[in-house]
Amino acid sequence: IEAISYIQNSPKKEVGVEIHIGKNSTLKNVFENLGYKIVKLDRVYFAGLTKKDIARGRHRFLSPDDSIFRL
Description:
The protein is of the alpha+beta class.
């Protein structure tokens, strides 16, 4: 775990966790071993991409600038 903090303007039962290596199951195991129950996980940033400005249930196509495989 790189960083952990409360999410601004959210109930104190919600925390933000920054990890660079790992999976959701790893994060669940850490918190459950500390006695916390994970109700929901939400990945908000991955591989330089974010869900910002995309409504729930919607998607967007990747632009050429999003691709890590530039020729």
